[in-house]
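fyi for ur records
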Amino acid sequence: MINYQGEDFTETEFYGREILEAIQLTNKFPISKKKLTSSLEKMIHEQLDLIDKEELEDYINAKK
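which gave:
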């Protein structure tokens, strides 16, 4: 668990947050699409109980 600005994050969540901040600042992806997709998959599995099933299905279909 990583504590950042008073919030606790898993390593994967923190990594995802850093990616999104980098994208906002540079308007570019700082990592390969394959690695980004892998990280998103990890976050999905860690947060599966909190994710709306329809949104998850939309993500899966958009990825195809």
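The mean pLDDT is 80. thats all i got for now
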